[in-house]
Amino acid sequence: MAERIAFLTPVSESKYPYIQNADTAFGQNKYKTSLVMKKADAEPLVEKLKDAWIKENGKDTIGKAKLPYKVMDDGSYIFNMASKMQPRVFDTAGNYITEDLNLRSGSKLQVKGTIATYNTGNNQGVSMYMNNVQVHEVVSMEANSSPFENKGDGFVVESKAENTADAEANQADF
């Protein structure tokens, strides 16, 4: 079995975080996020990922490995990490968070986890597993908030309270 290597990311911007609730789309059940890092912040983590592969499989096979990051057009890196088990979530004071923060893309997170290699025939690479997540900045969307501005014209849904009051008033007529 491959040795697991610990990692700690710098505080980074998250994309599509499923930290407190698992992503269950397409039959998967994973806690996951992507973290966007500047090149200077990403380079030590990239080296750690490559070193994990080389230690297990040799330097000449690095081209075969699927690595859990991509280099973006602007030179930044985006790292993908996941876990089947829910990571423990903390605030910046080290307090364990139990309530759902409803985290969205743009939240600033720091992840502590492990790196492991895998080799299942033609599927070879390196994975990043989340163990703990520290939340530095929350971007969330309230259940009743909208990302759109109110234009004042067009289709508008009546609130349930109004609908209930109208229904009760209509029932009284019969």
Task: Itemize the secondary structure elements and their pairings.
Layout: E1 5-8, E2 12-23, E3 30-37, H1 39-57, E4 69-71, E5 77-83, E6 88-90, E7 108-120, E8 123-137, H2 160-172
Parallel strand pairs: 6-8
Antiparallel strand pairs: 1-7, 2-3, 2-7, 3-5, 4-5, 7-8
Structure description:
The protein is of the alpha+beta class and 174 residues long. The protein has 2 helices and 8 strands; from the N terminus they run βββαβββββα. The protein has helices spanning 39-57, 160-172, and strands at residues 5-8, 12-23, 30-37, 69-71, 77-83, 88-90, 108-120, 123-137. Strands 1, 2, 3, 4, 5, 6, 7 and 8 form an 8-stranded mixed β-sheet that branches. The termini are far apart. The mean pLDDT is 87.
**Coarse morphology:** elongated
Number of helices: 2
Give me the Rg, rounded: 22 Å
Low-pLDDT runs of 5+ residues are none
Topology as H/E string?
Answer: EEEHEEEEEH
Largest sheet: 8 strands, mixed
Percent of residues in helices = 10-25%
- CA(first)-CA(last) distance: 74 Å
Strand content of the residues, in percent? 35-45%
Report the mean per-residue pLDDT as an integer. Answer: 87
Q: What is the number of strand segments?
A: 8
